[in-house]
Description:
single chain, alpha+beta, 7-stranded mixed sheet, two-stranded antiparallel ribbon, 17 helices, 11 strands, binds zinc ion
Amino acid sequence: MTTTLKTDLTIADIVNGFAYNELEGKGLFGWSGKLVIQPEYQRNYIYADGKRDVAVVDSLLKGYPIGLIYFVKTAEGKYEVLDGQQRITSVGRFVTDKFPYTGADGRERNFTSLPADQKDLLLKTPLTIYICEGKEGEIKEWFKTINIAGVPLNEQELLNAIYSGPFVTKAKEEFSNSMKPTLQKWKAYVRGNEKRQEILREALSWVSKGDIDGYMAKHRFDADIAELKTYFSTVIDWAGTVFKGMEDEMCGLEWGRLYETYHANAYDPVAVWARVKELYADEFVRNRRGIFEYILGGEKDTRLLEIRCFDKKETKAVYAKQTAAAQKKGVSNCPLCAIGHEANAKRIWKFDEMDADHVAAWSKGGATDISNCQMLCKTHNRAKGNR
Ligand SMILES: [Zn+2]
């Protein structure tokens, strides 16, 4: 499909020969008979509520542009409105006196009774029109994505339009095809709607290490998508090999990045999955999505798991007990300050000057209940690090 920009038409050209079917609520023809305003696949005219059609006229009379319009070239000198039908129909109906406009002076006027300069302003408004040419199926698919029901193009759909060519066509066949038998498997790992190009987006993001735009520009005229396909299936296969089972949280992980970071490491899939199960059962793990990278990285970075912290009630209780005991002994209520020789050795910290700490780190088997909680001054808590 190709698109050509056309900027030499005005409202006057388009509404010339405007015909409207009141019964069906359809704008029929315009542009001296060259334009079919409402093709089969269009929504019915829904601006005729006296508000939105007036709003179109109002903005034109204020000198604002009417927005992008798309036509499809159906034959030599024949066009259909792909997008912009509602706006064109509003203007066409106004120019043919089907509804009045209330000016700043509060008076209702038909188009015919508008002052000449206002008529002129409206009729001479230039239009920005894209003319699309291509197969009907392609065009309908395009139409579905450009503006239907007010859903704007998402980023990938825009990129597909910008870099349209053999590469995008092939890539869509592979990754946007709802009939694809492997799609269900992919969707266990990749979140998104294939019809909105979200699977394709992920595949491109993986192979390009995030530079989708650059990758599409470089490969725009490639006749095959071998690299894209192979890389995607390599990542998915790797994920399926390391993690034998399937959990909901595995969907939408950054598998491309995980593959790049960890695929050179050797794992024992049976042990890995047993560990996944253990961590799923651990009530202190708040972020299950982090389990997978935690294991891949050799169980070092507990931040990935967002281990449950002590709650305020627990910490207040520990603070009170710890402070009472410290005051009795005449030492700091931060046990680490108390064993130091610095100025803080006898300091009683306020509650909000302290943080809760796991006496035994969670990663070393320590529980997240009050028996494993101590309050430390903020400096010592930060210094203790790995929990
Ligand atoms: Zn301290």
